[in-house]
Every structure is written in structure tokens, then in C-alpha cells.
Amino acid sequence: MEKKQAPMTILVCGMGIIGGSIAKALKAFTPHRVLGMNRSPQPLEKALACGAIDAAVDEVSLSQVDLVFLCAYPAACVKLARALGPHLKKGCIVCDACGIKTAICEEMVSLSHEFGFIFVGGHPMAGKERNGFDVSDAHLFRGASYILVPCGAPQEAVDTVRQLAFSMGFGSVTLATPAHHDRMIAYTSQLPHVLACAYVLSPSCEQHVGFSAGSYHDVSRVARINEVMWTELFLENREPLLAELDLLLDNLKDFRDAIHREDGDTLRRMMKQSRLTKEKLGE
Question: Would you state the pLDDT for residue 1?
């Protein structure tokens, strides 16, 4: 049984759905003091009003922070780390929550050496179709996976973040390198978003009411997308995503060609292979 963590002062930068949910989970399920920072004042005011944070960070409290969550777009996380770095105490743990890692980890590690903080890459695998503090939820991470990308951080720091993840409700913690993280996320997260967006671009989408059920909603759900954030994620992770897109296009062409040829044997074989793959995974 893991020992209970001593209370820390934790700064959450970015009061969107992920940052807001982290703050709410920390306040609901841990003894830690939670400070907040946000580019615009309204989400920060809401976080204060509902008790998601104890206070907005200031220059004095910043020097007392033990751990920072950077919940912003990838390029913004690097800028935040560069701005906060000189004011953080030595040994402060800094975690990002970005959906890509290779594009930022080298620079984040370099900044950690320059300023004396410890960088531990992270990616909470949770979210909703909508964004913003208003839809943040202390229970968002219940049972979800948290990916840790240690980037050479001391084991003690990795263990601190790991234990914190379980305290916030995550069901599992997975360790990965930046490259493996990005290839897997290209498949499990980015590719489904591309597929959903391409799917709803059909003229048939506007006529789906009355003709659609679970299959339509399962495939199209994540097309309600934050196009600014996902454009950055797609382009920053373009090589792994292109590789997965090429595989998908090849498989789609195989289905298309079999249907065009009225080749039932090939269709049955491909669909059986798909079914057996899911059954093997217990899904």
C-alpha cells in the first residue's frame, strides 16, 4: 500500500476542461492546496467561486509551489514553462497535459536543466466533446488512463505524479517514451478525430435525423471538435498520424474494392479478422 502524500501546493495553469477538472479533482480527493492561473480572468473567477482552487497564484505563492500542471496547447506549455521557470523553487515538478510529446519534450527538458525544475511529461486520457471550465468535472478522470513520459526525471518525481494521478481517480498509469506515446496517440486519439470529421463532411450528414442510431453517433461523436487545438496537435504529430492514415486508407480501399467486385468472400474475411481482433482484446 502506497504511503499517503504529504500536502503539497499545486499550481494548475489553464482553467479549461482538463485544467479545471484537475483542480476540482485535487480539491475533492486530496489534501493539497491548489492555486490557479489562466490567461483570461473569467474562468479563474469561476474556479475561485466554486472552490476548485484556493487562490489565484501570485509572485509570492509561485515560489512556494511544489508541482505545476501546464494545461494548454503544446507551444503555449513551452512558453509557460519558460516564463514560470525563473520563479519556481529548485526541484519543483512541472507536468504538461499535452496530447503530443516529441515536439515539446526536448525543449521542456532543456528548460528544466536551465531553471532547476523537474519535468515529467503527462497526458490524461479523458475529455468531452465540449471544452471550457464550465464542463470541467472532478470525476472526469474516474477509471481513465494517465500516460507518464518521464523524460529522464528522477524516480521519486515520477512516483509523486503517479500517486497523484491515482488520487485524482485515474484507473491506470502507463509509462511511455515520447516517440511511442505519439505513435499510439496518433492511432487511438488523432485518427478517430480525423475519421469523424471526414465522415460528417458527407452531404448525407445533414439528413441523418430519423435514419441514425448508435453507429452514427459512435463514429461522429468527436467531430464536435476544437479545430484550433487539434490542428496544432495534428501538425505537430504529422509523421505518426500520416503513417496511421496511410494504413487506414489502404484498409478502406480494400473494403471499397471488395464491395465494388461484389466479393463476399473477401468482405467476410476482413470483417472476421476485425471481429477476432476485438474479441482477442476482450472488447
Answer: 47
Considering the chain, what is the average pLDDT of its residues?
95
Q: What tens digit of pLDDT does each residue of 27-68 get?
A: 999 999 999 999 999 999 999 999 999 999 998 899 999 999
Q: Judge contact between 31 and 77, C-beta under 8 A.
A: no
pLDDT band at 3 (very low <50, low <70, confident <90, very high): low
End-to-end, the C-alpha distance of the chain in Å comes to: 30
Q: Going edge to edge, which strands form the sheet with 33-37?
A: 55-56, 33-37, 9-13, 67-70, 93-96, 118-125, 145-149, 172-175
C-alpha cell at 204: 448525407
Q: Which residues pair with 9 in a beta bridge?
A: 33
Q: Are strands 172-175 and 9-13 parallel, antiparallel or unpaired?
A: unpaired
Query: Which residues lie closer than 8 Å to 42 by C-beta, 6 or more apart?
Result: none
Locate 174 and state its grid cell.
502507463
What pTM was computed for the model? Answer: 0.91
Distance between CA atoms of residues 251 and 260, nearest Å:
14
Question: How many residues are recorded in the chain?
Answer: 283
The yes-or-no verdict on residue 116 having pLDDT over 60 is yes
d(CA 96, CA 117): 13
Helices of type H across the chain: 17-29, 41-50, 59-62, 74-84, 102-115, 155-167, 178-185, 191-200, 214-220, 227-236, 238-260, 264-280
**Cα torsion angle, 189, 192, 198, 199, sign:** negative
**How large is the average pLDDT for residues 179-186?**
97
Q: Are strands 9-13 and 118-125 parallel, antiparallel or unpaired?
A: unpaired
Characterize the bridge pairing of strands 33-37 and 9-13.
Answer: parallel
- The neighbouring-strand residues paired with 118 are 93
